[in-house]
Amino acid sequence: TVALTIAANTVVFSVVQHVLLAPLPFPNGNRIVRLGWESISDPQVGQFGISADFYRRLSVRSRTLDDFAAVTRAQYPIGNDRDESVAAASVTASFLPMLRIRPALGRGFTPDDALPGAPPVTIIAFSMWQARYAGAGDVLGQVVKLNGTPRTIVGVMPNGFDIPISFDQTPDVWLPLAF
What we know:
Elements: H1 2-21, E1 37-38, E2 47-48, H2 52-61, E3 71-77, E4 85-91, H3 95-99, E5 105-106, E6 121-124, H4 126-133, E7 143-146, E8 149-156, E9 173-176
Parallel strand pairs: 4-9, 6-8
Antiparallel strand pairs: 1-2, 3-4, 5-8, 6-9, 7-8
């Protein structure tokens, strides 16, 4: 009985330690906070958390946050084939610098990438780079059609990179988030 109790407590503590107490795998991961809510009345809305207006007010008035970023998710058809889709994450330009993540190849987003009229760009996941482009070094500058919009590839995410919010699957493409 004592052995089973100790084993059960060890398992419970290990799960709690890994899920709740361990910091995220980023520099200062113990200081990263996710702000948001889930719509109970409309399950189609899913998880986003804040409005564009709230994000703007937060950027002007926050005195307690070192940095912050916004993230949304979607599924987009890729190429000319409307049957194939990819998981996409749209992020503000501050997202990668906030996490201190650098693309494995190319560059991250700049604030100019989200301005109206800016050339449409994307960063692709390392796994997509390997599967769709065979890890070719000349992937930067190539064009991929997402949701009917041709987008220039400007970067490749590091291998194994995943974002610290719940997604149904790891994003294949990253887009600049414009409010």
